[in-house]
Structure formats: C-alpha cells, structure tokens
C-alpha cells in the first residue's frame, strides 16, 4: 500500500500547501522521518542528496511550531536551520515560505556576502524560522544583534559538509548557545565518524532513518569515464559541449565540476574562446553573481555551469541532464554529492568523469567507497590532431639583440674602451691609476691614457662635489 502525505498526521494548512505544489506521495526519507519529528524525537537522517530531506524536517517542524503557539522571541527565532552554503540556505528558506504560507510562519534567511546591517534590521523583531550559514549567524550574535535563547528546533542540513568546510568550531559554539531543552535534527548524505561523535553530543536518544547506504550513488545515473591527459581535458570538453563528440544522453543543462576556483574561471574563459557560453560559481563570486549564474542556469539561458564543490550539495536544479567531473574530487564522498545534482525528482541522469594519470588514485577511492561502475568511453578518432590544433601555442623565442661593433681604422686597438674600463674600475675602487692604452700609435696613446685617467679623475670630482653638496645642505 502506497503511503500518502495524508497518512502522516500533518495539519490542514500543511496539506493545503502540499496540494498547491502538487505533492501527493512522500519520498522514503519523508515517510520515515515525519512521524518521529512530529512526535518530538531527535533524529539522524541519512539520505542521498535529492531525496527530499528539506521537506522531511520542514513539514513536521512547521506543524510543531504551529501547535506550540508561542510568541516570536525578540532578536531570536523558534526554529534554526543551519546550512553550509548560501545557495542551499536560500533554497531551504524558499521551501519554508512555501510550506508555511498558510500556517502564518515568518521566515528569514541570513548568509555571508550580503549586508550585515540589513540582516540586523530584519531580525530585530525576531522570526519563527531562520535559515542561516554559521559564519553570518555568529557575526550577528557577536554584535549582540541576535541570540539563540528562543530556539525550540535546531536543524543541521548537510551536516557532513559543515565539517568538510571547517564549521566544527562554529557548530560547537552554536550548540552551547541554544537551549538544552530543544529538538535536534541531523540530515546528511554520508555518515563519517565525526558526525557520529557530534550526534552523541547534540542529540538525545535520536531516531536513525537511513534510506540508502552511506556513500552510494543514485541508481538512475549512468556513469561514464574518459581516460585523458590533464592538459587535454579542455579540448575534450570543448568537443563534447560543441556536439562534435557524441556522448550518451541529450544535453539540457550541464554542470561541470572543477576542484579549484581558478580552475572553474579558466574553463569558462576557454569555453568562451570557442564560442560556448558558460557561467562559473564558486566561493570568490559575490552573492549577486552566484544568484545570477544559478538563475540563468535554471532558466536555461546559459545551460552550462562550471562550479566548485560549493554547488555539489543541496542545490535542487531541475533538469540537469549531465554532470561532468572535469577534475575528480580528492574526497570520494564528494563524488556522490556532485553527481547527485542530476537524476532528481525521478528523472534519469548522466555522469561523465575525466580522469588523468595523476587522478587514478582518486578514481580507485571512488570505486571502492561507492561501488560505482563506469563504462569507459573512447576518445575521438581525430583527438590528437584536435589537441594539437587548439592547444596552447608556445610563445616565439625572444631574439637576442646583436651588439654592433664600431668600425675601427686599421692598426687601431680600442684603447678608449680599455681606458674606459680601467676608469670604471677606478671609480668603483675610489681611485687607481689608469694605464696607457696598448697597441696604439703614439699620438692616440695619450688620448687612450687620458680616457683611463679620466675615470679616476671623474671619481675624484664626484667625491668633491658630494663634499660641496653636504656643506651646502648644512648651510641650508
């Protein structure tokens, strides 16, 4: 018998909101989590990204706040949801607004990269639900603009990525600032040992809900592999995105992952040189830039998005047909999150990995951790010619300037040059005697010697000038 949302004990306002969105049947994580959360239990939810974790905690959370019927606390919130990235925080906040529209819930979100003063103003009177990134939340707490004394429900979404991004100290601080009497909900795609440790400290006898084994890949994603040299990856990507090398699946929206921010920008720049429009999204982009890039990607106006792992978690973008791992992640669990951007909401997806010689160890770890099965694809027949044709060209070597020797009369030796050289040594040593230039007629020898002595004399003259200048400056 298929479970319906109406079987889970949700309130009428929530059911009406679900009807408006066309939701009838809960996903497995929702079906298993909503009941315990409605009952007030702490919960640890293990589920792959894209399985509906947001609704699994937000729907029963809103119902619990509504049933408690408490006033909004001054400069605080009743339900605090922590998210690792700005994009995920914005997505959760929008879901909270949609689900809580008929329940009268006041929802706000605060993230880094935006105006702190605006955040202070909008949170001055408090809110029912606050979705926040840890850094910005602690900034406002340190400024005495916000506090956590009113928190009834604490939610950590994508808790394992919180740890990956170095938020462990922030989470420890926040756990000390929220009331001891609270409900705590953890949701994550993987279950590393550090999460187990935190669950023991944060939660009180939690219910564990796991709908898939930790670190497994989505069953509806076909995974393919290219073995290609690192300096040839850009050429292969150009051919694939330009439709000149056929790969499985029909291109709709393509998400390309790199390991570094500069790598993402470099890929976008190279694609633009080939006439292929793409946007980049990573931590160095401002919040308006990131919002604009995601919006163009969702609308399909720029259907290619190059991203670092900032976009690997929790971003629900319908219609991502392909995920291309331009560079393999050095953490195997991150591969799960990357390819989880496709095959969402029941759709199928394609994941393509580029693996260079120095990434074989990463590929081995991914296979071991996720049991992923890759179908290896051949490189294009003319790939070597293409690489040589579009690869970077070496700059032409600089031509050395040839020194033009002055013409000399027969029987002359460059005595002036020798004399100048000796004079130069006289200047550096502060004195010395110039030697007469050798190999010259008698009349020119004196000129050569004069040139050499001139070097010594010039040093003496400059010394005298410096002494006169010092006397002059002392007089001033």
Automatic annotation (TrEMBL):
Compositional bias annotation for Basic residues: 464-476
Span of domain Helicase C-terminal: 235-385
Presence of keyword Ribosomal protein: no
PROSITE patterns: HELICASE_ATP_BIND_1, HELICASE_CTER, Q_MOTIF
Gene Ontology, cellular component aspect: cytosol
Compositional bias per record (Gly residues), positions renumbered to this chain: 417-462
Transmembrane segments: none
Record key words, sorted: ATP-binding, Helicase, Hydrolase, Nucleotide-binding
A Pfam family matched in the record: Helicase_C
Domain DEAD-box RNA helicase Q: 3-31
Location of the motif Q motif: 3-31
Annotated Helicase ATP-binding domain residues: 34-209
SUPFAM superfamilies according to UniProt: P-loop containing nucleoside triphosphate hydrolases
GO MF entries: ATP binding; hydrolase activity; nucleic acid binding; RNA helicase activity
Domain of life: Bacteria
Statement: the UniProt record of this protein carries the keyword Nucleus: no
Region Disordered, annotated ranges: 387-476
UniProt similarity note: Belongs to the DEAD box helicase family.
Designated name of the protein: DEAD/DEAH box helicase
Source species: Aurantiacibacter spongiae
Biological classification of the source: Bacteria, Pseudomonadati, Pseudomonadota, Alphaproteobacteria, Sphingomonadales
